[in-house]
């Protein structure tokens, strides 16, 4: 990090669509670097629903989101993409020689002839409860996503929130955790009625503690290791819940973040593209996947894949205007052995 790189294409976002864009660029012999703010590739599939099956990927009657990502990464691997993970793309500016220059939060600088923005819902992040010192616990005993429910086996888990995510995880974790407490500021939930009645049944059976109407107040613990969650009512009645894990589920806030400052034409927080080319209003900047909009856009993975194929050919045309691309099928052009 802090390094300077030069390449054909830089892809902003390593979600399913960004990963497939590596493959499509590889097919037209463009080299890629890929940047993602998350520590792992896979975007929403990895961060939000790794264990959920997907039923609408052509050729896969059913595939778990995490498995789809493993396969997309393997499909891109022969083209030797360079990944820069755990860093947010912050600035994007024109550089000399027809390059765009991108700088990340870790100081990595990448120059590329074309940029494909595959930033999904943007720099999406959880709504964090305003608790003093919560940062020290994040990733150790405070989590905003569950990626592996097994890691909570035998733990005392406090879930905060009143929506579907809070209720669904309470039901699921009640099967493995030593103790599950649900803290919510009201006694009514905003969850599917079926889930809410299952929750109430588990509460009645003594399997889940319902802590309502309480709000999070502070955390006890040392070195990121949680010992108790303190909660209080609006009237100031306090309670201490011994706990190893806190899962605050207050929804996600999605914002384009720095991307909104790159001079791209936007429509309701999404990037307008010409679907025939995936081009944005700025020459050399293309966009694909959930981050884009155009008439008829479907926010589906398969639609993003098709946009990636279009963007790769547009990038090729920009980078090699003198060598028209002869359309080839993957079988005839040959994918290098992994
Ligand atoms: P994303 O997956 O959102 O990935 C974008 C990536 O860009 C993220 O990793 C983000 O961290 C990164 N990023 C953003 N800004 C920056 C920045 N400035 N710097 C660095 N990195 C950045 N679709 C289907 O087709 N079928 C389904 O069954 C289905 N089920 C779903 C179920 C759920 C619960 C959810 C939430 C979505 C579902 N979807 C489904 C939608 C699907 O997940 C999205 O369409 C898909 O993830 C879009 O892929 P993407 O690569 O465009 O964006």
From TrEMBL:
Q: How would you classify this enzyme at the top EC level?
A: oxidoreductase
Keywords in alphabetical order: FAD, Flavoprotein, NADP, Oxidoreductase
Domain of life per record: Bacteria
Question: Bound how, and how many: what does the cofactor note say?
Answer: Binds 1 FAD per subunit.
Ranges for the FAD/NAD(P)-binding domain?
8-302
- Detail which positions bind FAD: 36, 44, 49, 89, 124, 290, 331
Gene Ontology molecular-function annotations: ferredoxin-NADP+ reductase activity; flavin adenine dinucleotide binding; NADP binding
Q: Coiled-coil ranges per the record?
A: none
Please indicate if the UniProt record lists Flavoprotein as a keyword. Answer: yes
Which EC number(s) does UniProt give?
1.18.1.2
Q: Does the keyword Translocase apply?
A: no
**InterPro entries to which the protein is assigned, alphabetical:** FAD/NAD-bd_sf (IPR036188), FAD/NAD-binding_dom (IPR023753), Fd--NADP_Rdtase_type_2 (IPR022890), Ferredoxin-NADP_redctase_2 (IPR050097)
The protein's annotated catalytic reaction(s) are: 2 reduced [2Fe-2S]-[ferredoxin] + NADP(+) + H(+) = 2 oxidized [2Fe-2S]-[ferredoxin] + NADPH
| Cofactors (names) | FAD
- What sections of the protein cross the membrane? none
Similarity annotation: Belongs to the ferredoxin--NADP reductase type 2 family.
**How is the subunit organization of this protein annotated in UniProt?**
Homodimer.
Task: Please name the HAMAP family in this protein's record.
Answer: FENR2
Q: What is this protein called?
A: Ferredoxin--NADP reductase
């Amino acid at each position: 990090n802090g390094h300077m790189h030069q390449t054909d294409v830089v892809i902003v976002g390593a979600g399913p669509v960004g990963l497939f864009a590596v493959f499509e660029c590889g097919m037209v012999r463009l080299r890629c670097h890929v940047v993602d703010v998350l520590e792992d590739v896979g975007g929403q599939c990895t961060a939000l629903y790794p264990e959920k099956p997907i039923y609408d990927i052509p050729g896969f009657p059913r595939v778990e989101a995490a498995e789809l990502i493993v396969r997309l990464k393997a499909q891109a691997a022969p083209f030797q993409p360079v990944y820069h993970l755990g860093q947010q793309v912050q600035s994007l500016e024109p550089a000399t020689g027809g390059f765009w220059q991108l700088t990340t939060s870790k100081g990595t600088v990448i120059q590329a002839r074309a940029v494909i923005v595959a930033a999904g819902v943007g720099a999406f992040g959880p709504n964090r409860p305003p608790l003093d010192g919560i940062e020290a616990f994040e990733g150790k005993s405070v989590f905003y996503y569950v990626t592996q429910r097994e890691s909570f086996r035998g733990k005392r888990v406090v879930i905060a929130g009143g929506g579907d995510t809070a209720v669904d995880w309470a039901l699921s974790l009640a099967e493995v955790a030593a103790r599950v407490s649900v803290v919510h500021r009201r006694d009514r939930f905003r969850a599917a009625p079926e889930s809410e009645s299952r929750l109430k049944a588990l509460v009645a059976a003594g399997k889940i503690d319902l802590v309502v109407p309480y709000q999070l107040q502070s955390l006890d613990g040392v070195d990121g290791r949680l010992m108790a969650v303190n909660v209080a009512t609006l009237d100031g009645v306090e309670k201490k819940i011994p706990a190893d894990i806190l899962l605050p589920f207050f929804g996600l806030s999605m914002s384009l973040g720095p991307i909104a400052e790159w001079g791209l034409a936007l429509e309701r927080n999404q990037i307008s593209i010409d679907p025939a080319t995936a081009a944005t209003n700025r020459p050399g900047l293309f966009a694909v996947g959930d981050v884009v909009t155009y008439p008829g856009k479907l926010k589906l993975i398969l639609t993003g894949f098709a946009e990636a194929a279009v963007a790769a050919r547009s990038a090729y045309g920009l980078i090699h205007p003198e060598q028209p691309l002869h359309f080839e099928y993957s079988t005839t052009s040959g994918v290098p052995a992994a």
